Amino acid sequence: MKKFLFAAVFLLLPAFLFAQEERKSFGFQFALGSGYTFYGDDSLKSNMNKMMDRGYCRFIVYTDAGITYKLTESIYILAGLQIMGDMAWKGANYSNHASPAFFGGIQFYPGIANLSFSLAYALGFRRDWSVQAWDYQKTQVSKWGNGFRLSAEYDFKKGGGIVPAIGACYLFMPTGHDDYDNTLAVYFRLAFR
């Protein structure tokens, strides 16, 4: 009986996930993925190069969460928070960086299947924690910067309900002292709309 119940749930789950329904006015979404940040700070770039040359372990995680509001069937207002975490370590030495950014803008579907694009204003900063064997120690918060965020996503389901999607985004963020971080990320998203 348990096997039958498990098989029934396994077979019916896609029908519930991908059932066609109209998209609601408000929705929320979250994403998880990875990416890479091209840091503008020369001393930070030099430190990262030394770490990679010395065989440090590195883990980069991207996440975001946000809300959407439907203006028309193809144009939406979106707002949210994205965070890129970049962690590298070897023994007691480490270099961690977190780059949170608030964003708000427009998402639109140009009519190419379920593909969408977004353009958003972004406000963020970078937080660094580093302790290295070569006397590089740094704990700082960059200046807040005004940048922009571009993204492209493909929804695996048209309309509303639970909508899985894949996407990629680019974030341009000034971090003070004529330094600019450029972040690229790819992610899997679940939207509830």
Description:
Strands 1-2-3-4-5-8-9-10 form an eight-stranded antiparallel barrel. The longest helix is centred in the first third of the chain and has 16 residues, at 2-17. Residues 11-19 have low confidence and may be disordered. With 193 residues, the chain is mainly β. The protein starts with a helix and ends with a strand. The chain is elongated and about 60 Å long. 15% of the residues lie in helices and 62% in strands. Strand 4 (93-108) and strand 5 form a beta hairpin. The relative contact order is 0.22.
SSE topology sketch:
Elements: H1 2-17, E1 26-38, H2 42-53, E2 57-70, E3 75-90, E4 93-108, E5 115-124, E6 127-131, E7 137-141, E8 145-155, E9 162-176, E10 179-192
Antiparallel strand pairs: 1-2, 1-10, 2-3, 3-4, 4-5, 4-6, 5-8, 6-7, 8-9, 9-10
Keywords:
193 residues, mainly beta
